[in-house]
Sequence to fold (1711 residues):
Amino acid sequence: MSGANRITGKGRLTPARTVRFTFDGKSYTALQGDTVASALLAHGVHLLGRSFKYHRPRGILSAGPEEPNALLDISRDSARRQPNVRASVQEVFDGMKAESQNRWPSLSFDIGGINNLMSPFFGAGFYYKTFMWPKKAWHSIYEPFIRRAAGLGVAPTEADPDHYAGRYAHCDVLVVGAGVSGLSAALAAAETGAEVMLVDEQPEAGGALHFDAGVTIDGQPGYDWAQATVARLQAMDNVKVLTRTTAFGYYNHNFVALVERVTDHLASPDRHTARERMWQVRAKRVIVAAGAIERHMVFANNDRPGIMLASAARTFINHFGVAVGSKIGVYTAHDSAYEAAFDLRRAGVSIAAIVDTRDNPGTGVLAEARSLGIDVLTGHSVTDTSGKLRVSAMHVTRNGGGAVRKIPVDALIVSSGWTPSVHLFSQSRGKLRFDAATQRFLPDTYAQNMVCVGACNGTDDLQAAIDEAVSAGVSMAREAGIDGSASTTPRGEARFAWTGGMLGAGEGAGADTTVKAFIDFQHDVCAKDIRLAVREGMHSIEHIKRFTTNGMASDQGKLSNMHGLAIAAEALDRPIPQVGLTTFRQPYTPVTFGALISHSRGDLFDPARKTPMHAWEEAHGAEFEDVGNWKRAWYYPRAGETMHEAVNRECRTVRTVAGVFDASTLGKIEVVGPDAAAFLNLMYTNAWDTLKPGRCRYGIMTREDGFVYDDGVVGRLAEDRFHVTTTTGGAPRVLQHMEDYLQTEFPHLNVWLTSTTEQWAVIAVQGPKAREILAPLVEGIDMSPESMPHMSVAEGKICGVPTRLFRMSFTGDMGFEVNVPADYGQAIWEAIWARAEPMGACVYGTETMHVLRAEKGYIIVGQDTDGTVTPEDAGVGWAVSKKKTDFVGIRGLKRPDLVKEGRKQLVGITTKDPHVVLEEGAQVVADPNQPKPMTMLGHVTSSYWSENCGRSIAFALIAGGRAKMGQTLYVPMPDRTIPVEVTDLVFFDKEGGRING
Amino acid sequence: MQKYSIFAVVREAMRGNKGWKAQWTSPEPRKEYDVIIIGGGGHGLGAAYYLAKEHGITNVAVLEKGWIGGGNTGRNTTIIRSNYLYEESMDIYEHALKLWEGLSQDLNYNVMYSPRGVMMLSHSVHDQQSFKRHVNANRLYGIDNEWMTPEQAKAYCPPLDISKSARYPINGAALQRRGGTARHDAVAWGYARGASDRGVHIIQNCEVTGIRRGPDGAVLGVETNRGFIGAKKIGVSAAGHTSVVMNMADVRVPLQSSPLQALVSEPLKPIFPCVVMSNTVHAYISQSDKGELVIGAGTDQYNSYSQTGGIQIITHTLDAICELFPMFRRVKMMRQWGGIVDNTPDRSAIQGVTPVKNLFVNCGWGTGGFKATPGSAHLFAHLIARGEPHRLAAGLTLDRFRTGRLIDEAAAAAVAH
Amino acid sequence: MLLIHCPYCGEDRSELEFRGAGDAHIARPTNMADISDAEFEAFFFLRQNPKGIIYERWRHIHGCGRFFNAVRDTVSDRFIKTYKAGEPKPDINAAPATDAKVETYEALEGDAR
Amino acid sequence: MADQTQALRREPLANAHGGSGGVRLTPAKPASRISLRARADAVGALSSALGLDLPIRPSASAISNGRMALWLGPDEWLVIDENGADLMAAAASAGAMHSATDVSHRNTAIIVSGPGAATAINSGCPQDLSLKACPVGKCSRTIFGKAEIVLLRMSEDTFRVECWRSFSPFVFGLLAEGAEDAAQ
Fold:
């Protein structure tokens, strides 16, 4: 059986289609289409959770996404567990496990409930006033205690095995909400021929028609009309309907984010199907038909399980066929609750009484109540309730005082009226206006290309809402550029026109009371807390919100904001609009991180860029390091070798035989055009017009501020063609920097830039035998020292493949860099290796490259420089042309602090003990015995064991470094102080003869 | 001032919490003040507090165009640390951190400073070099910051994924144990209460529309939406709106204001014990005492005063969070928001005199202003009271952009090579 | 996520294709080597940072690659106009100034004024 | 390229396969490509040299005999020859000022086809790919997830997606996920 409270003949679910699920370990039967809330209510289960602060027992308040109380932990297996799920939204599936939260040891007996007794001490903001002594106790004692008590659900501890999808979409008209207004608007827009997207958060269209059985449209019951209309829309080519889809964020320029829940309602989802799909929609026009949310009444102990919104009870009976009680009380300030009572009464449920705080409810509903024999107490209020884990009685008095009648009930349904859902409108940064007559904020000034229709726009009358929606559908389509017309205008009839509504505290919860009349259920914020905040000087609604945490729970104030505002306004004795309104931010309802990141996980988190030789390197045991997006071979350990041993071997081998190195990741830019040299003259500190075709030069690039930006070797292939190289990480920004100047400052120059980083695989062959290895493979290039000296470039072929062959060196030994079109990279690498290996050469990685270049005093931009180092500081001042009248950086370099004495300069340093290798990043001081804070002279930028020098070597940026040659300085480390000597930058082959082989 | 204590809380509880007084008063503005501070955030309120407390200057007004603490003070992710690289930065942030350590007691207001540790993840050789440079500089400067192996990092922060299969495997971390978080609103309110108690006027909903200057160029006061208010000295501490205010005195400052976004998850039971930052993948995360995961996202790429930005900034940071903590993919974002950050070209703050006599400025804190609050406020008060910067803020002057003596923390972190 | 009209492509494209490039109409001095420190500071560092109309540069970096200029309201984030690099700074007196109807979040919250 | 060198070639997506019921993903065969840059006055000469009219309308393409010219910017075209012809030489013969740079190996391409092709691409590309906004023949450089691509609509349900070679596993992987989702 799907529950004793399931009323035969009521509801729209199919009795035969049952599913099983568990709640707190107990098994229940539900019907397909049930929410957890409806399924549990069918079994008479009202107690679903505990509140945040006082751990009070809580039930189901709503039948929608505004639910603050009934938050459960829902899982299908241990890794697929989702905390804080609204029972009122989650559909039951076969095998689902639901658990209550924030209670221990059990939901019905929760130790944390003691907080409720202590609540006078836990008033709003109490924690600002205590827990300050002793000083360290906040973090060590109080905070851990508060943190454990706070929080709701338990975060998953396993990696999420599900996957998520994302899509960008465009449409002419996006309609949010598939209630009467949304459907009417979507139909009208669709009939004009516009591309329409219609989204609704519920499993089926209908919105308020789910509960509002008093509405007929075009002669059909409202809900049936909604289903027929959706079917009609779905059949149209220009319409996309998405259900279980929440428009959660309205961003700039009509960009609306949606999340579609694809599998959370399925018992056994296909593993290829994404759990959720995020849609990012750019809509030419948006129609928001988001409806309204019913508010609760604010009175003492209004939070007991069994107390719920009237519209929720009506949803449960009319849609799910579930009676939320057998003797139900009604407490209202709005006519709509009467209709809930009528529907329940007609379903055979006893209505204890309708307590209406108003003296004059709508005449229609009053008459109907009378005819149904329902007792109506106008001018009365519920001032308290009884019951432990479920409401057992409502305490009723005449307004203004009098005897209290305790009327036994097993459920109490409440309504203080409806709050238009202006969330998306506010997110779009439209301006609201307060309508004093109806006591609500309504859309006023639009900031984006959108319009609100129906209940969220304050249009209460059914036909007026339909007319407004149809007209919006046509006009929004027209504004989107679609000139069509709509032929359909639905005709709607509602049984009653609703009146009424109130904001703020009800009878018995007024200014001088200390009762617990809840406004924000989840955070346990009561009316008295708002008043306390005001007393403490919090006069801005934002201060009141932050002080009391009203509206900061996971429902983000959907139920509480207006009540809080009204109570604050009363306490401040100011009209509501002068107290203001807190901001509605995205998202409308919480959205999983998984949906937000959609595909960006695992290999798709961030592209891992690999060179054409990567597979070979991997197969040959390379360890890789991350450099920007690139994976670079770091070193190639042989069996049993440590990193240190491998690097030492590689360093030795390169200097004695040769080494082969993958330099493909270096940035490459082809600079082509008659003004190419003139352009490079402006971009680099060096002069380029003097470089002859076939030759290369090392270039330094500064920004306008004079600090080193990048460096690299530039080869001139022809008068009008340069092959520029950049650092690996610098490639994109250098190209952007060059394009910026070319397009913006020097557009008169005839030159173009093309990134060729990935066109070429680059194989560096360095060491005494480099020429011997390569020469037999190369065709059409004379590699002799005479015709191909150091720093030259030639085009020819290698193994039959075109190559740009550079004679250059980043090791100080004779070296070549073979550029071949990337698809050939691995084959040519293998061909070179086939010659190199038998000669005793090695392959080497970036670590060895770093050591070898350091031995020779070559800098690495970004390691030996940071954004505060000039070419002069870095010891490459020679690369700054003294003759040029302009280049980027020429003026910045001359600023007073850039030419000052005592700047940090890059120098070599050697440890007194040659076996000690300094830590990169270590700080250097003159006096190691000075007290802290010490005066630091600079830091170690590069430091290695140099196998070739037989000692450690290092670079450091030292204040006035070049004037300190030969001096002893100190590197104080935690365990010892290391004496060092300042040297020049070159540690190996000081004469530089090896470069010529 | 009504003293706050556990006894007061109990006493008032017995009386229905009816005896609590306003934390600060809301007086009508006087005709003239000795000092007007423009901007009622933590920095401005704090400066007023220290002017009164330490310099005996109590004829002070803080003018706030909205509600106090409503700017970046109330919109940031509350990270506190002092493990910066350059001496100018270490000086001020460490000064701030020392004040944070006793702030609750000083203010008699629990600002919930929680030294739970700030851990910065290293993902590459380059990160490691950079972090060790920080660790060593901090150590010699007397600031705690330590290098950790991946295993040590995981032990300190169990949710961390230190597997080698990660896209950017973690090869270590730098941890400042004294770093942590504090309750942002409490900072504004605590300073406001302390200042108000000492006679400072806190005037909300008071927007400055002009700065009036005398024939000698010195300031005379401010035009506001509540009329002219005279001032002998003016301190501007208006964060993202500094350019707007300084333009009223014809002073141009090297600032760009852009949106900075952040988000929180739904509340969860304690799972995340410290603050974790990763510059490589762009992630900043901690867990609030209420249980929300607090996540800092990046700045949008354009100038804006709108306090809102693109969703791609949010998703970009969540990509990184979920890469570092794959179990959080099922956690839900509850709220996102934005503030306006004022960035200088070198990403370090400006605090100093201006070309206009008796006009002082404190701005350019960019994304790091909250952690500096007590230190910045304390030194700003000194600057205003004495007319010249305190030794610890002497490097933050405006003229460095002319001379080139930049404090480029961002550049020092450098780039991949 | 902004929607930006590229004057070269003639289409509205997502902000994801673009990169912001700072203030527009700041000409690099032709006598760069000769300007004073103060002039250099003004050229390279000092900006108006307006709350309201800003003239700024964008590059359609993942599109046609062109730098172009835009007039945008930094309060509403609304583009008033985009135009090709090299075109004169448009006179937008005719266009609406800061749209007072559109508010920042900040102005939407807190005490009404 | 000569036949003997063909054996030495290893294309970045050589072994890639993927797709779903509604979307096929096929690595395109190797092609020669140049990035061509020129001012307006050289377009005529270059067009005759290349044997097809370089499009001057934004986002337009020209295709003839396995050769395609894609407008990428006001002075920029991506010229692709599926038969591997020497485009550098062809451009050089124009005799008008231009910049041609061989990018044959820099780029690789994936053919995305089937009724869900546009949806699959929209898993990472923010452009409007409806036929109205993106008719057959339209091309543009754009963004796809965290990679840059050049997109050409070859027919109603066939796109050519060009990307840089080191990004191609990412692009292919995201297309594969998009293809799978498009089939749902």
Q: What stands out?
A: The mean pLDDT of chain A is 96. The longest strand of chain A covers residues 276-288.
